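F.,

This is the one I mentioned.
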């Protein structure tokens, strides 16, 4: 028997259907079928379904005899489903990577009749809201019934976040009713009747918030159908379950919450119908009020419930109007106050900055920053540590953005960006060291020294060299880029290759310090004991093979899309391997569900990860240049190399001059690790050539060379 049937009702989704199907068919888990129901869609959806069915036998298309609506289309799909479990996925949404595997594992672990999964909301303008139910799902017992954990009734009542045992549905005769809000009369009875419920607290479904076409935004009296579905849900609840007083109370409260939501927020009940809608709501309140009562919400929401109980529509309108006006007034005041406060702070800061610039330069102050003020890290951190040893007369101060201030190491003197101490520091510091540029408004004072350390050996085009590759440009103001580069006194490069690249990327009058990368000093001097200590800090057993996966950022991929399914990869590496996954800092962290995959995106010191790893798996990240210092295997997984090369522009052909084994396809990638070819003589030979070109200066003394030249003025 097929494990999972994905029922996909399709109607007027031609713009979204391919993304939905691709997200399902590209999953690593393969024991599933897609039962796509063409609900007589008048657009090209039917043709798209036929195209996918022709090339993938897992897709079966069922055509409705006429347009039957969402609920009936789901029923038609259920009739043709053969899987042990069924998942009613909406065809304008899409699944995250690894979802089917994670869901299947959870179902097998718990033998659940119903699995409720997490989701996020993806807005049409690109905004993403993390699933509000994730904490609730994580707090649930492993397996439970509604009586054992009634809070489950507060989780969004939709079909697409639930995977249900098909035999359970058929045995009890659960089907979808016709009309809008059909999820209500399905979801709540199923939850109440299911003896074994479990949850999966990870983002499985990307819930599309459409700009147009959503039922909840359609104006009309069909919103009254919500009452019919709740009546049906209440009847089925009584038929298939014996709810406790607590469950009855929570179900009742959820019903009234939903009615208020339809009237006040989600829906578009016509103005002339709202009093009638409220009246029906009040009738339902009296009819279904539990004898033991219900937990009345606090504050304004509780007031509305009491007005529904009394049937006081005019009072609720006046109450909502008063609340809305008060909130609007607060928002205006808050915005005005916030704008005035920000402008005043900026203006005061700039005035203070100008005053401080007239005061003498503080010859003892060395100011450091890294990654847009994220903390003590990278080349500036290595330079600061060595300066404390060789130039103790200097006082190191770090600039940190407010969100990162609490995570600064104890005892590290720092100023928060945008504050008066920050303006004083940037105005009077003798030395300013950063791995990115300082803000545009910073004025380079005579007698000060700016050190640009950069934060990677460049594969992709940078600076002025990006002009020929506009699709990958984030900052098209090249004039401003060059003005910032003109402030540099020193530019630190890791190797002759980088020196040449920066010559064309940043044509300015700075002195190049071709000394190696200070942050790699630790790697160059590392011992076996250092690696063992790094593993111990990460909790990795000494006998495990450790693969570190560090992909780069791809601007052209939609939110949540990855080029490698890390869960599948971790499983196929085998039980003797730990996969560490470190996403790029511009990328939303992935959610590996397999126990063999560990998300280390938030680990503060990347060098710890390098030392703990036996092999680095990457694509186009500058991590390959740093990791090569350790002379350990590197694998390049470059499935979209032509796209990256053409969009971003590159300084050399990575596939022709790699740091190790290269593959552009997943089967070949698995083959490299299973066969051990990633660490054979051929891979070692190309790594040796790569190291000669890019790592020859990394001898453990790069930071010392920078400190002696910049802070001690000792030319070599």
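My design for it:
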């Amino acid at each position: 028997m097929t494990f999972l049937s994905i029922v996909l009702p399709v109607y007027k989704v031609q713009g979204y259907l391919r993304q939905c199907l691709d997200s399902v068919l590209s999953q690593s888990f393969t024991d599933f079928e897609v039962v796509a129901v063409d609900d007589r869609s008048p657009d090209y959806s039917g043709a798209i379904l036929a195209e996918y069915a022709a090339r993938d036998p897992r897709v079966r298309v069922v055509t409705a005899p006429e347009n039957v609506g969402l609920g009936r289309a789901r029923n038609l799909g259920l009739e043709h489903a053969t899987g042990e479990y069924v998942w009613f996925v909406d065809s304008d949404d899409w699944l995250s990577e690894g979802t089917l595997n994670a869901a299947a594992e959870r179902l097998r672990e718990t033998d659940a009749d119903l699995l409720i999964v997490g989701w996020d909301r993806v807005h049409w303008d690109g905004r993403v809201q993390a699933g509000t139910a994730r904490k609730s799902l994580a707090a649930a017992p492993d397996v439970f019934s509604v009586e054992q954990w009634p809070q489950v009734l507060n989780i969004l009542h939709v079909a697409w976040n639930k995977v249900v045992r098909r035999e359970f549905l058929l045995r009890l005769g659960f089907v979808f009713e016709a009309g809008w809000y059909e999820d209500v009369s399905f979801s709540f009875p199923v939850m109440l009747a299911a003896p074994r419920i479990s949850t999966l607290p990870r983002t499985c479904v990307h819930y599309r918030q459409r700009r147009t076409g959503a039922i909840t935004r359609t104006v009309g009296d069909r919103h009254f159908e919500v009452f019919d579905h709740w009546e049906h849900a209440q009847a089925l609840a009584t038929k298939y379950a014996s709810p406790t007083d607590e469950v009855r109370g929570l179900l009742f409260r959820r019903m009234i919450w939903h009615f208020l939501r339809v009237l006040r927020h989600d829906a578009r009940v016509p103005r002339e119908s709202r009093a009638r809608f409220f009246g029906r709501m009040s009738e339902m309140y009296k009819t279904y009020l539990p004898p033991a009562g219900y937990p009345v919400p606090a504050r304004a929401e509780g007031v509305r419930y009491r007005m529904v109980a009394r049937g006081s529509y005019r009072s609720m309108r006046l109450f909502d109007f008063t609340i809305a006006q008060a909130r609007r007034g607060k928002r205006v005041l808050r915005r005005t106050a916030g704008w005035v406060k920000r402008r005043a702070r900026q203006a005061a800061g700039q005035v203070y900055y100008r005053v401080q610039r007239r005061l003498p330069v503080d010859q003892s102050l060395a100011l450091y920053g890294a990654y847009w003020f994220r903390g003590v890290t990278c080349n500036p951190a290595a330079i600061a540590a060595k300066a404390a040893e060789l130039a103790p007369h200097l006082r190191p101060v770090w600039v940190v953005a407010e969100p990162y201030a609490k995570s600064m190491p104890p005892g590290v003197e720092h100023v928060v960006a945008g504050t008066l101490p920050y303006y004083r520091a940037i105005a009077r510091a003798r030395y300013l060291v950063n791995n990115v540029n300082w803000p545009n408004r910073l004025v380079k004072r005579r007698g000060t020294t700016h050190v640009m350390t950069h934060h990677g050996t460049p594969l992709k085009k940078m600076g002025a060299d990006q002009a020929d590759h506009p699709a990958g440009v984030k900052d098209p103001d090249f004039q401003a880029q060059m003005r910032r580069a003109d402030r540099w006194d020193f530019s630190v490069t890791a190797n002759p290759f980088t020196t040449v690249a920066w010559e064309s990327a940043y044509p300015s009058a700075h002195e190049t310090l071709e000394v190696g990368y200070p942050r790699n000093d630790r790697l160059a001097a590392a011992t076996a004991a250092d690696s063992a200590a790094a593993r111990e800090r990460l909790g990795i057993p000494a006998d495990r093979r450790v693969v570190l996966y560090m992909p780069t950022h791809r601007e052209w991929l939609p939110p949540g899309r990855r080029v490698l399914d890390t869960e599948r990869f971790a499983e196929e590496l085998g039980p003797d391997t730990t996969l560490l996954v470190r996403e790029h800092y511009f990328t939303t962290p992935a959610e590996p569900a397999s126990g063999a995959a560990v998300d280390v995106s938030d680990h503060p010191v990347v060098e710890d990860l390098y030392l703990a790893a036996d092999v680095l798996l990457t694509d186009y990240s500058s991590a390959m240049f740093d990791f090569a210092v350790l002379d350990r295997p590197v694998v390049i997984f470059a499935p979209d190399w032509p796209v990256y090369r053409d969009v971003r522009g590159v300084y050399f052909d990575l596939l022709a001059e790699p740091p190790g084994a290269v593959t552009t396809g997943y089967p070949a990638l698995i083959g490299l690790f299973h066969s051990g070819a990633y660490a054979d003589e051929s891979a070692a030979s190309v790594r040796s050539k790569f190291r000669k070109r890019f790592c020859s200066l990394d001898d453990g003394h790069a930071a010392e060379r920078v400190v002696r030249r910049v802070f001690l003025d000792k030319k070599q």
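The mean pLDDT is 89.

Talk soon.
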